[in-house]
Design brief:
This protein is an alpha+beta fold. The protein has 8 helices and 14 strands. Among the domains are: 91 residues; 130 residues, Cathepsin D, subunit A, domain 1 (Beta Barrel), CATH 2.40.70.10. Strands 4, 5, 6, 7, 8, 9, 10, 11 and 14 form a 9-stranded mixed β-sheet that branches. The protein has a 3-stranded antiparallel β-sheet with strand order 3-13-12. A hairpin with a 2-residue loop joins strand 4 and strand 5.
Length: 355
Amino acid sequence: MSRAYLLACVGLVSLVVPVDRSRADEASAVATLKAKGIVKTGSLALAADSELSKKLKDDFKLKKNVQLATQALQTATAASTENDQAMTALNAQLIVANRNRDAATNNAIVGELNLRNDQRKELSKAESEARAKANAALEEYVTFVVEARRLADKITHDYKLLAEDKDVGSAIDELNKATGKTFALTESKAFQASLKMLKRIEDQVLSDEIPLKAQSNTFHVATTLNGKYPKDMLVDSGASLILIPDKVAKEIDLFVPEDAKPLKLKLADGRIIDGKLIQLASVRVGRFEIENVDAAVLGPDFPSAEPLLGMSFLQNFNFKIDADAAKLTMTKIDDSSKGAKAAPAKGTPAKTGKK
């Protein structure tokens, strides 16, 4: 065996040993980092980054569930409201028929009222079920956002904590020495992108707690009509519309067209009164403003009536009244296409009533 051949073999061994040692050092460093929740790809990042990314993929599905449930609730509420208004009108006609002793008309109206009353029970049940589903869908979405934020905050905290971990620092130094590269533990681009997405999602979940003014067994809330008219209104989820007494309509210069649709309205005490349907340009409570809200303006025959904040506004939210704390909590997922927003009121005038 030649001397040159032996020298070549020795040289090959001397090259292989450092390479094998470097690979072993690299593997050791990677194992240490993995035990700390750090993965090595083209860079170093926390394995939990992918958990947040996967979780945020549920956003579209859960938000769609809220939108569909809300639409179903609005449809159910509209059907129930239409039936109630029809019954109110029939009761008014029944009073006239009885006054005129018109037995045939009386019997026809009573028959129609009986049918409507049966429908009312079904419609009320459907509305209650739709409201429960809408509230559940919104609650699920809000829970998703809260859990995503909790996970994001934990990952951010872990990045800071591990950056100060001596074992992690030693493992990274070992990795850099073994690979000849300059790895460093910093928030990954994927995690930063997830944080931006989460911020956009959070900005769409609007919630506010508004103080209520308790009076006997009722609660009033500060409300701004058409952007510039502040009024305390009785919160009444049993009222299908916002009700505005004649004196209040005059105070705020609310224009009621002569051809505005006439309404028969049934008060809590059973009285049936006349009103006209209009559309308010905006109604604001707390940080929330809804545009194009149906309202009924009462006639001048009921000067003692007070303004009511009814379902034509409240149905846009998941709302809850805390009687003990005297506060109204409203939550909504922002959807600008529905005319809802959380912004300063604009002060636009009332629009022409519906025909």
